[in-house]
Amino acid sequence: MSLFDHRRGSWLDVESDGARLYYEVGGDPRGPALVLLHGGFGSLGDFKVLLPHLDAQYRLIAIDSRGHGRSTLGAATLSYEQLSRDLERVLDHLHVDTLSIIGFSDGGITAYRFAATTRRKLLKLVTIGADWVLRPDDPVIALLSKATPQTWREQSPAALAAYESHNPEPQHYDRYVEATLAMWLSHGAENYPGERVRDIRCPTLIVRGDEDHLFPAAKALELRERIEHSALFNIPYASHTAFADQPVLFKAGLQLFLER
Predict the structure, then answer these.
(1) pLDDT of residue 171
(2) Is residue 1 one of the residues assigned to a domain?
(3) Where is pLDDT greater, at 51 or 253?
(4) Which pLDDT belongs to residue 53?
(5) What does pLDDT average to over the chain?
(6) 206 has which bridge partners?
(7) How far apart are CA 254 and CA 102, in angstroms?
(8) Are 217 and 207 in contact (CB under 8 A)?
(9) Could you tell me which of 128, 96, 165, 88 has the C-alpha nearest to residue 247?
(10) Burial, 151: exposed, middle or buried (Cβ in 10 Å; 0-12, 13-18, 19+)?
(11) Do residues 194 and 136 touch, judged by C-beta distance below 8 A?
(12) How much is the CA Rg of the chain, to the nearest whole Å?
């Protein structure tokens, strides 16, 4: 079975708000569960670069976040808290109680919230380019405040084409962009976990690219100090998408962390 191709997955209906969550399961069905959570304006297909190493050892569960990939947005307000609840729904549906997570960017932020609150047994957490707090003076606010659905169409034509190809509701593209940008810029308690990260108890690997302008080294170090059993993996010559920019280095560090 080909993984992360948006062809052989399944949907889970969220009756409370009308969203449909798309997910794919593959790898070794007898292996430990490893959940993959992609970043904003991405999809589960972004993790193809991590194959085939992981699918030989783990039962892989990859989810398109609501509104992304083949998942629909639904009527609920998009937030990291909502995405964490969606993850809980998928795990309930698949009867998964013990797992590890790899989360990139928004997927990592969602994973922080999940790790701090879930009653499931979370063995290990890996986050990539995932910030944990949005402060009022954060430089990213000025950058993102200028973005609109139209500027996103112009700057990311490939992402627009992928969305129109995969999503069953392509007419909702503008609402999807607006909802994602609003989540990024929100200071609400339902979004960035902030000091809640102190409640994360599982071993955590914090990964960032050395050239990641969205997740500064200083904030990564602050996060490292707040999560008790954590390590910081700073990858040289890599941007926000460190796992894709330097896949050999990333896979080496990931394997060391997951197998130790």
Answers:
(1) 94
(2) no
(3) 253
(4) 80
(5) 96
(6) 127, 232
(7) 10
(8) no
(9) 128
(10) exposed
(11) no
(12) 17
Domain count for the chain, please give it: 1
Cβ atoms within 10 Å of 66's Cβ, excluding its own: 24
218 three-state secondary structure: helix
Question: Is the confidence at residue 1, as pLDDT, over 60?
Answer: no
Cis check: omega of the bond before 168, within 30 degrees of 0 = no
* CB crowding 107-145: b at 16 or more within 10 Å, else e: bbbbbbbbbbebebebebbbbbbbbbbbeeebebeeebe
* Pairwise CA distance, residues 183 & 128, whole Å: 18
Reported as a single tens digit per residue, the pLDDT across 113-148 is 999 999 999 999 999 999 999 999 999 999 899 999
Instruction: Give 182-207 pLDDT, tens digit per residue.
Output: 999 999 999 999 999 999 999 999 99
Residues in the chain: 260
3 falls within a domain: no
Domain that holds residue 20: 10-259
Sign (positive/negative) of CA torsion 221, 86, 2, 34? positive
CATH number at residue 41: 3.40.50.1820
Predicted TM-score (pTM) of this structure:
0.97
What is the pLDDT averaged over residues 151-165? 91
Q: What is the pLDDT of residue 204?
A: 98
DSSP structure class, residue 112: H
Would you give the end-to-end CA distance of the chain in angstroms? Answer: 29
Domain for residue 4, yes or no? no
Query: Is position 5 within any domain?
Result: no
Structure confidence at residue 260 (pLDDT): 86
Instruction: Give the residue-averaged pLDDT of 32-38.
Output: 98
